[in-house]
Amino acid sequence: MKHLDAPLHVQGLSQFTDDVRPPRDMVHGVVFGSPVARGVIRALHVEEATASPGVVAVLTAEHIPGNPLFGPIIQDERLLAQDEVAYVGQPLAIVLAETRADAVRARALITAHIDEQEPQFDPRAAYDRGDIIGKPVAFAMGDVDGVWAQCAHVVEGSCSIGGQEHVPLETNRARAFPKEDGQMLIWSSTQSPYAVQRAAAKILGVPENKVEVDVKRLGGGFGGKEDQATHWAVMAAVAARHTARPIEIVLHREEDIRMTGKRHPYESDFKIGLDDDGLILAFEAKHFQNAGAFADLSMPVLERTLFHSTNAYFIPNVRVHAACCRTNLAPNTAFRGFGGPQGMFVIEAAIAKAADAMGLAPDQIQAKNLLRDGDELYYGQKTERCMMRRTWDEAAEAFDLESFRKRAHDFNAANFGVKKGFAVMPVCFGISFTKSFLNQAGALVHVYTDGSVSVTSGGIEMGQGLSTNLQAIAARTFGIDPARVKVEATNTTRVSNMSPSAASATTDLNGNAVIQAVREIRAGLLRVAGELLGAAPDSLTIAHDRVARDGKSTEIDWNRLVSEAYLRRRKLSAYGYYATPNLSFDHATNKGNAFAYHVYGTCITEVSLDCLRGIYTIDSVKVVHDLGRPINELVDLGQVEGGLMQGLGWMTMEDLVWDEKGRYTSGSLSTYKAPDVYFAPDDLDVRFLPFWENEPGPLGAKAVGEPPLMYGIGVYFALQSAIRAFAPDTALVFKTPMTPERALLALHPDWSPSPSADRS
Amino acid sequence: MPTVFYLNDSLVRAAASPGVLALDYIRHECSLTGTKEGCKEGDCGACTVLMGEREGDTVRYQPVTSCTLPLGELHGRHVVTVEGLNLPDALSPVQSAIVDEGATQCGYCTPGFVVSLTALLLDATKTLSDDNVKYAIGGNLCRCTGYRSLKAAGARIREGVESKLTPDRVASLVNAGAIPAYFATMARKLAAIESPASPAPARTPAPSGTAPPPLLLAGGTDLYIQRGDRIPDQDVVILNRLPGMRTIEERDGRIHAGALVTFEQFMQSAQLRKIMPALHDYGLLMASWPIRNRATLSGNILNASPIADMVSLLLVLDSELTFRSGSAKRSVPLRSFYTGYKTYDMRPGEILEAVSFPVPAPGTLFHWEKVSKRRTLDIATVNTGIRMRMNGGVIEDAAVSLGGVAPVPLYLEETSRFLTGREPSVETVLAAIDRAQAECAPISDVRGSAGYKRLLVRQLILAHFLTLFPEELTMERFYEAS
Predict the structure, then answer these.
(1) Residues of chain B contacting residue A222, judged by C-beta atoms under 8 Å apart
(2) Considering its fold, how many domains does chain A have in total?
(3) Which of A77, A170, A654, A706 is catalytic?
(4) For B383-427, how does the pLDDT look when each residue is reduced to its tens digit (9 = 90+)?
(5) Does A191 share its domain with A237?
(6) Catalytic residue at A118?
(7) What H or E segment, with its residue span, contains residue A651?
(8) Contact present, B121 and B94 (Cβ < 8 Å)
(9) Do the beta carbons of residue B200 and residue B18 sit within 8 Å?
(10) Which of A268, A696, A749, B407 is the most exposed place for a label (fewest CB within 10 A)?
């Protein structure tokens, strides 16, 4: 089974938001963003821009018809800034013109007079000032303070974790079409159609039922379009209302990088206590999240950091604190892993530092402390069907973990200028939205009289293979050929109140909703078959497009069954609804069953470091991953490999840099580098545990979207190990990404440019 | 005068301004939306198209990023978008390999990969080896797959197609049903397009005080990124439509390279590879295939970036620039061409016509180094070239260049002079590094801190010597000494 859309993609025939031929009177919008990171707006001069050729209108805060405030958790953001600005690029005005070129030309004529204030970028300083969003949160179990004294080894340290730009190849974009009676149709490249609908309705001042959001597919999202596609879609809607014409807003890459949030940078402190054998007795971490200027999704991201702060390990005494710290960067937001990667990096750093202090290999400590079935995690949930040790053991055996150690040892003894390093990265990641109410989904299934099937869900196809999965789920549950099933665009008039396509849970939630709908229609069809055959419906099934009785094919094929059902006036459509059972997390005590289940896997990464130049090659990445029983193995393999690659990029070359004014100097693809084919390791070997039924997943599948990203964390520690092989005295520093610059400087801890030579 | 070209199998007569981007024209005027905009600066490859140029009875195709390609350059050319590769009843071998390997996920980058891999099939100088698959897709970013599946697609294409290829790639691919049949007719059709009456002959710019001089546009890989929004409104001279300036020849003991020679042409030149055996590898670090097909020597020189890769190589070759203004010619050594950040010794009315350098004596050693955040298709943090002529273990003549450490690409005069007459010993290298440090003045920016750049200066000069004298020098000995 291939990706459903793949044949269209390879022919260039699949349509993205702005690929549909535009209506003749469509207006193009571009956004004017704040040139400064923090200040009070004194004046915004748009007169010259308004008079510029081709300009239809220039909209500012005063043109917002309804409630100007929005935001997914706290409504603290304005669609267009008024009074103050809090980050560079914060939207101030929308220029609408007959062509994009006209709009861009006019935008350059806008001037903003802003009294600049000192911008803030340091989350620790923000925390000290009390400038935080929401409240600090803590998860705890056991008696951390009481245990330190019993630990043979207590190690402390800190981490500085970089952010990450999403770089979906398709930037943010939307079209809005004004309809009769104050209604609005919006096409948006969003992971969250309902978020767009809700925000657009409030800002337009209309009920939600007057806003229809339709999403065919996304050219990548990765979390960047979970909440921050909303802005541009709603701007298009406001502009469409104002001009009574269709509007298109497509962000240029540089606008997209500068104006939207990223994975959160974190500053974190850790303290870990172990016994002489390397058993971890206690762990404490403090996470200072760089949230950016507004709340966005920072609070739930922070919460997931808390959930994953001990990664794959059982630790009896744990205390983790965290706070969303306000800074003058674009509001940071969801990104594959959603705070989990930062939490996991810190515990891995703690283990690396403890291993160094104890003279152990990090993997010795890792292996000793891996989760077992039935372990109670510090947030009160017990692991079930825990595959953590199984994936570790299988990886160690299948890939011969000891051979990595030997190879590094032998190679490093024989080579001066090139060093090898490796690291093991186990991952345990919880599946479900941690806000339990989001764990619900609806799906609408129609069967037409010619036997073809239409499936609409609340989930978004963004490359993760949702439509491929839903097609297979519907076809297998009906018992028909997948070719009969079409997966529709996602539309808020067919499925309501959908949760974002996020948290790795899109196929789980929507697939289960599709199963509910299909089962309802199928049950009705089997009753019809029973009438036709004079048989009890429960003796009948549908398989391979045909009704079977007691396992034997009958003369009733799918087409006949469907048309008989229609003629007998039976229901050929159903709305399926699914809510994940048994979730019971209490946000007051921070205890309970937050997740339907966990995903497990283990990754080994090997690198070669050119110690002369500070550049490196990833020699191999080997993974054993638990999929349950995949719906489509090819789709899931793509998710594992792609997630891993984003993790490798995050840890190595993806370097977000801003200047003292808060301007991203890595604000384009010429300065912000994502992995390319030459960076990707040639030896990338992903294997799966033998397939098994994961009961909460649709057809026994496990979620797969986010967990593999965290395998990428291993490359940092592999590189660090190679650095140490060359420069044994260099300090262990936990500052990501490990760019060639950081690697070369770590390889040469004593380097300082000779003063006589330094004229700079 | 309209720009007349074939877009897939259709003749297009485009009246739009020659400075309009091919990408915008293809998507918005021709409604061919398979070609995607991902970055509009040549860094993602989602907009890659084939550009075919007639050579006798055949057409030579190259992949290029349509986001740095002016419409005006397409006259008489065959432009192929992903839609133009679609077969009537089946997927092409490239398309089906990507489908079968699961090498497309969101699909947005996919058309670019299809075009780049097809370009590899169409290039008679290239096999379908794993290395060449990377070569072909080195300019295409995919954020979904992790690339393993794309590499596997390349291998699958090789298995299916390689045995059917003949030196006439177009004919053999048409026969194999791997590209549409209309490709076989393109040479004839292109021949029928009236060649433009020598277009816009290097105009002498208007005297000062009147209209601004037209913008001279070569490969566009820098200009479109710096001011792409304005170019469609400007009066442009498409230099690639001028005759000449595109050959590499040896004459009177010098290599003469036309100003419009592309990076790809330069790195593939057998003549130059004889002089610099690792030239091909340097090229791989300078840019991706589609960009190298566009980027020109003159563009790299006149963009005057302090980290211009080609300039750092040309500096050690002791290059001279030839400018023409009307019938007047003037020569300037590249070493003294730059006068400050993005300023240089070029006069109004001049165009850069050629770059030339003496053919080095046989046995002359060359090396070039570059470090950047990403190894390939990235801007250098520091780059450096070296040329040395040895005589009995002594450096008889040396030239060292250094980029990214000053407002201009540096020729290290002191360092080069110092090296002359010395043996390549640890002490020589240490002293040369001190001199190089004294000659440069790096600043901190997005590509690295000043201190890091200084460390790179040391490391990369050392790398030159370790590479060129592996017998005499080892890294270990250098580190013991320093």
Answers:
(1) 143
(2) 3
(3) A706
(4) 999 999 999 999 999 999 999 999 999 999 999 999 999 999 999
(5) yes
(6) no
(7) helix A633-651
(8) yes
(9) no
(10) A749
Element (H, E) at A198: helix A193-204
Question: Is residue A136, in this structure, part of any structural domain at all?
Answer: no
Domain that holds residue A381: 266-433+588-747
Q: How far apart are CA A336 and CA A224, in angstroms?
A: 9
Hey, which residues 163-192 in chain A have their CB within 8 Å of chain B? Answer: 166-171
Is the Cβ–Cβ distance between A442 and A511 less than 8 Å? no
Q: Are A737 and A637 contained in the same domain? A: yes
Q: Mark whether A515 and A600 lie in a shared domain.
A: no
Residues A709 and A734 placed together within one structural domain of the fold: yes
Q: Is the domain of A231 the same as that of A88?
A: yes
Chain B interface, mutation test: which of A11, A636, A651, A656, most B Cβ atoms within 10 Å? A11
The tens digit of pLDDT for each residue in A592-637 reads 999 999 999 999 999 999 999 999 999 999 999 999 999 999 999 9
Are B107 and A465 a contacting pair at CB < 8 A?
Answer: no
Distance (Å, whole) CA A372 – CA A383: 7
Which candidate in B81, B96, B106 is best for mutational testing of the A interface (most A CBs within 10 A)?
B106
Q: Are residues A89 and A184 in the same domain?
A: yes
Q: Determine, yes or no, domain membership for A144.
A: no
Nearest to A655 among B114, B373, B376 (CB): B373
Among candidate residues A72, A135, A121, the one with its CA nearest the CA of residue A323:
A135
Which residues between 640 and 679 in chain A have a beta carbon less than 8 angstroms from any beta carbon of chain B? Answer: 641-642, 644-646, 653, 655, 657, 665-666, 668-671, 673-679
Nearest by CB: B146 against A464, A611, A684: A684
d(CA A304, CA A335): 12
Q: Say whether A638 and B102 touch across the interface (CB within 8 A).
A: yes
How far off is chain A from B45, nearest CA to CA, in Å?
A: 10
Domains in chain B, CATH or no CATH each? 1-194 (3.10.20.30), 248-477 (3.30.465.10)
Q: State how far the Cα of A706 lies from the Cα of A508, in Å rounded to an integer.
A: 13
pTM: 0.97
CATH code for the domain of A284: 3.30.365.10
A169·B142 Cβ contact <8 A: yes
Is A729 at the interface with chain B, CB within 8 A?
no
